[in-house]
Amino acid sequence: MKEVSIGIDMGGTKIKIGLVNAGRLLASKIIDASSNVGFEERLKDLQQEVDGLLTNHRCTPNGIGIAFPGIVDSDRDKIISDYVKYPDAQKVDIRQWASYHWGISAKLENDSRAALLGEWQYGAGKGCDNLVLITLGTGVGTAVLLEGKLLRGKHYLAGNLGGHMSVNIYGKRCNCGNIGCLESESSTWALRDRIVQSPHFQESTLASEKDLDFHTVFKKAEEGDLLAGQIKENSLKAWSLGIINLIHAYDPEKIVIGGGIMKSKEIILPYVKKMIKKHSWLKTGQIAVTPAKQLEYAGILGMGYLLTS
């Protein structure tokens, strides 16, 4: 039987489970996140899914790593944020859970940091030791690598809250309590309300669309829809300003942009690069901006690396 590391990436919409051996994803499965459900209850489902993967692929585990969408004490493998996703997560002992079910060790890390490790070792950040990752999706996640080391900070916040930097002092209150966060200005969870609450919604072609996602917004903007164009411009500008803030804060060699919204990278990348050239203190050529290569499984590969490094 092949020995593998189990990686679990608990996203806001989907949970990805994978078996990793020597940096290669051998098998995977994706299930609904149901992030409103208690974390302890969700772990019961994950145990069954993991057992199924191990049995079907004749593998034995050497450890399990969970990438979690919140603030994580990676020294004690504890979730320390009390946020909207997975209530009761702070109470769960991941080490005990892994030891009880499989007799193996467990690692817990913030999902953006895990994705950063995956891109650093196996993706767009390979060979670069000063790296910033930003993921555009259900929320906006960030992580930072400085001189080859993950930035964590005294309270494990460092580099993780790029999505909750204010980019609009007149903006709405975010679900974190802050005002005008990058997330509340331009993420999937905030998009529908921003569209529907616009005074131009009823006259927009977006009013007849079932799926109000960024792909639809960009498509309608290209077709000349006024509201879609406004939403597109606001989002691109917010993402760009957020990235410029990260550049000024951490002075990286490279910015890697991932997340589901980057399926529209042909629209996003040129805009971001233009804004960096215009507004950043760094001159053209001093910093690279590139799409993530491990769009689906960076977090799982990152946890696999963390378990074996």
Can I get a quick summary?
36% of the residues lie in helices and 22% in strands. It is α/β, with parallel strands linked by helices and 309 residues long. The strands form three sheets. Strands 3-2-1-4-7 form a five-stranded mixed beta sheet, with helices on both faces. A five-stranded mixed beta sheet has the order 10-9-8-11-12, sandwiched between helices.
Properties at a glance:
2 domains, single chain, 9 helices, 36% helix, Nucleotidyltransferase, domain 5, 309 residues, five-stranded mixed beta sheet, alpha/beta
Helix content: 25-40%
With helices defined by DSSP (H or I, 4 residues minimum), what is the helix count? 9
CATH architecture of the largest domain: 2-Layer Sandwich
Oligomer description:
single chain
Sheet with the most strands: spatial strand order: 3-2-1-4-7
Query: Could you say how many structural domains there are in total?
Result: 2
Shape: globular
* Biggest sheet character: 5 strands, mixed
Supply Rg.
Answer: 20 Å
The CATH class of the largest domain turns out to be Alpha Beta
Averaging pLDDT over every residue, what do you get? 94
Series of H and E elements: EEEHEEEHEHEEEHHHHEHEH
End-to-end Cα distance, whole Å, is 22 Å
| Total beta strand runs | 12
At the fold tier of CATH, the topology name of the largest domain is Nucleotidyltransferase, domain 5
What percent strand? 15-25%
**Can you identify the CATH superfamily of the largest domain?**
ATPase, nucleotide binding domain
Parts with pLDDT < 50 across at least 5 consecutive residues = none
**Structural class, from helix and strand content?**
alpha/beta
InterPro entries: ATPase_NBD, ROK
Family: Belongs to the ROK (NagC/XylR) family.
Pfam families: ROK (PF00480)
Organism: Agaribacillus aureus
